[in-house]
Amino acid sequence: MSDQKFAAKTIIITGAGGNFGRAGCIHFAKLGARIAAMDNNDSALLETLREVNAAVDGEAPVIQTYICDVTDPKSVQETVEKISNDFGEINMLWNNAGYQGQIKPTLEYDPVDFARVMNINVTGMFIVLQSVAKEMASQKKADGDTTVSHPFSIVNTASVAALRGTPAMVAYSSSKAAILAMTVSSAKDLAPHGIRVNSISPALIGPGFMWTRQNELHAASGSPYFSSDPEQVAQAKVGGVPMKRLGSIDEVIKSVAYLLSDDSSYTTGTNLVVDGGLSAGLKA
């Protein structure tokens, strides 16, 4: 099955070796997209490649993998150039690579890890955004097609942590807040080049290893905001969600798909929150 919004469109997905990135690769491949899967973990990328090939039953998915360090401008530029040469064009970017960092109260947080979180989540995201946007802008100029005013779309992965200021996650929350500002500013700068830029902010997505592990780390953090029992931490989190359940990775991917597609053709500079109402009423 293909979807005309994604059929034969080239989508770059960073962090493609992780749970969300891998699910995104599978989702868009099933819709007929051409996937450029980027990650700095070779074995994780190979697993993504295997799962995509297995998921697209009866059809040959078009997916290529690229080892890339998002914090290295030279690595990113060379990778984006290779993707453009391999596929002929770049239509969409899910700027998804990220690093959670430590879960510790502010007084105990390691400044070295804080810098690493910011380097990957903020500087790395900007490097990828800028490099891909330059390629998109050059395509727009060369094409000269005015039938679609903004044919290119970028989605940055932020987080509800940016809106709520999650305790014991000062670096992660700070980095995701920076992404929200980056999204708005770059959306304005890139609109004249036919590029829309939006962000997605998930929270409490599970079940699975990531959900379970984060609850364990919050319980062990010593923060007065969390029980020392991981199960009680989980119960309290879900109890604060108006919809009283966890979200699924699939629900996040569908929201990303909306922002990437022409279904959101008049939307740019927006943050789409996917959290069951957890942060309703909060503003960045």
TrEMBL record:
SUPFAM superfamilies: NAD(P)-binding Rossmann-fold domains. It is an enzyme of class 1 (oxidoreductase). It comes from the Eukaryota. This is SDR family NAD(P)-dependent oxidoreductase. Its EC number is 1.-.-.-. Belongs to the short-chain dehydrogenases/reductases (SDR) family. One of its GO terms (molecular function) is oxidoreductase activity. Keywords: Oxidoreductase.
